[in-house]
Specification:
By secondary structure, the protein is an alpha+beta fold. The protein is 57% helix and 12% strand. The strands form 2 sheets. Strands 2, 3, 4, 6 and 7 form a 5-stranded antiparallel beta sheet that branches. The protein has a two-stranded parallel sheet with strand order 1-5. Strand 3 and strand 4 form a beta hairpin. Helix 4 packs antiparallel against helix 8 and helix 8 runs antiparallel to helix 9. The longest helix has 67 residues. The two termini are 54 Å apart.
């Protein structure tokens, strides 16, 4: 008997080996799509932006925002990376997909379950066509049906051979979705740090504009005081005083909108770092504390496509969609599932652990689709269409990345030109104000002319502050668009512990 059981077990194992040797994985194997990357970002026929250095291997000494040389910005970034709700959401999403990947991997392993039961049964011989049981039978009491207990200990083992790789493709898709979530987390970090820097620059720029406007208003009031005195002496008509008053009112009306924007920027920065406005106040950023680097390293387009997180996330999405095609195809082919059950059963508890109580079954089940109304074929076509859709999104993401870098570089060039022009304007206005003041001291100019020259200087200073803030803001845009290092990592992808856990 034992030899017969061994023979049957060998036959089962032989069949299993034969089935495993015949396993294959259907569906297309994923390969990263080729990227038609240009040599640079400038529009055809345009000169490249000065101050931007293109390199195939950009490595930064630290996080990109340290290029602005602001300790206050560094501290705010630390708060944002530690406490921002968007950071927590990115981490939780990644952990969810990592768990889903482990679930898909576990589904390919053998399933082993233990069972234990205690049940009470009533055996009725009449239900099997017998009018009664033989006298003395354990199932009868004086020839009648008997109620008795059954105790059992056992186990169940099952394994899906996955002949055509459907489970393997599902595991591959789950791993790709985990990679997608990881890259999306990187994109969330990059977006967060860029938004923090934008708000810091906005606060500094608005502060500079408000200071320049307040200086203009102070000059307006001085000019109005002189105009009123001159009118009292009959030196100027009333209409001149009215015009000065109107100018003061117009300039004063510019302050409230700027203050509203300034306060809104500070509250938005509190939101980004995960703090309530009533519990935290941002540093007092100013333009003097934010310096733009002389040169900015930017990855070549071909390298950008291999490091920008939204591109990598789109590629991982395409990978998952490609694997889903194989999973859908595998469902259209036959499959074999092996299972084994063993149990120790007895009427008396003390007899359960006994060789006489042993029972087992081996089962090999084959399932093959015969007719399903075209549902499986439709699912395959759906997966193929989804893969084409993911490919289109990938291509669009790559193109958008190139355009965003190009936009930021072009904006930096116009910012440079505008800043240089306004710097010259401020210099000339200051010289004009000084000359007008010296001429007034000699009696060749009036006090009103001195104040007008001073007012022009203040206006040029306000425009320059706006231009400087815009340049810093566009520089942040370039860092974000070029996927600059946000966590002290090089292009090899080694993390410094700031980002989400892998």
């Amino acid at each position: 008997m034992a030899r017969a059981s061994a023979a049957r077990l060998c036959a089962v194992l032989g069949g299993l080996s034969l089935a495993l040797s015949a396993c294959t994985t259907v569906g297309p194997d994923f390969a990263p799509p080729p990227v038609d990357a240009p040599a640079g970002y400038a529009m055809v026929g345009d000169a490249p932006a000065p101050g931007v250095v293109l390199s195939p291997d950009v490595r930064l000494a630290g996080p990109w925002w340290q290029a602005f040389g602001s300790p206050a910005l560094d501290e705010v970034m630390k708060l944002a990376l530690a406490d921002s709700p968007s950071v927590a959401a990115a981490r939780a999403k990644l952990e969810r997909y990592q768990a889903a990947e482990r679930e898909a991997a576990g589904a390919r392993k053998p399933l082993v379950e233990g069972t234990a039961s205690a049940q009470r049964q009533k055996f009725n011989p009449a239900s099997f066509g017998f009018s009664g049981a033989p006298a003395g039978s354990q199932f009868t009491e004086f020839g009648r049906a008997r109620t008795y207990d059954v105790f059992s200990l056992g186990g169940h083992v099952s394994y899906d051979l996955d002949l055509f790789g459907g489970a393997r493709r599902r595991e591959e898709a789950a791993a790709a979705r985990t990679a997608q979530a990881a890259h999306e987390a990187d994109a969330a970090y990059l977006t967060l740090t860029a938004n923090v820097a934008w708000q810091a620059v906005r606060i500094a720029g608005l502060k500079g504009e408000i200071a320049a406007l307040q200086s203009i208003i102070a000059d307006d009031r001085t000019l109005l005081d002189l105009a009123r005195k001159s009118f009292a002496l009959g030196g100027i008509p009333r209409i001149t005083v009215t015009q000065v008053e109107a100018g003061l009112a117009e300039d004063e009306a510019l302050i409230p909108p700027l203050l509203r924007q300034y306060d809104a920027a500070r509250r938005q920065l509190a939101l980004l770092v995960g703090k309530s406005p009533g519990a935290w106040s941002p540093p007092d950023f100013d333009l003097a504390g934010l310096t733009a680097p002389a040169t900015t390293p930017v990855s070549l387009p071909s390298a950008l496509a291999r490091r920008r997180p939204d591109i990598l996330a789109a590629e991982a999405e395409l990978h998952a969609a490609t694997a889903n095609i194989g999973a859908a195809l595998a469902d259209r082919y036959p499959n074999i599932r092996l299972s084994a059950n063993g149990a120790l059963s007895a009427i008396n508890p003390e007899d359960v652990i006994s060789t006489d109580a042993t029972g087992w079954t081996l089962l090999g089940g084959l399932t093959a689709p015969i007719f399903d109304g075209g549902a499986r074929k439709a699912r395959t076509r759906q997966a193929e269409a989804q893969a084409r859709e993911a490919l289109a999104r990938y291509r669009l993401t790559v193109l958008r990345a190139f355009v965003e870098v190009s936009d930021a570089m072009a904006a930096l060039e116009t910012d440079r030109q505008r800043t240089e022009a306004l710097t010259r304007a401020v210099s000339l206005s200051r010289e004009s104000a000084d000359v007008t003041l010296r001429a007034a001291q000699l009696g060749a100019r009036t006090a009103a002319e001195v104040l007008q020259a001073r007012r022009q200087l203040d206006r040029d200073r306000r425009d320059l502050a706006n231009a400087q803030a815009q340049r810093l803001s566009d520089l942040v845009s370039l860092y974000a668009a070029s996927a600059a290092d946000w966590g002290g990592r090089d292009v090899s992808g080694g993390a410094n512990g700031v980002g989400p856990g892998r």
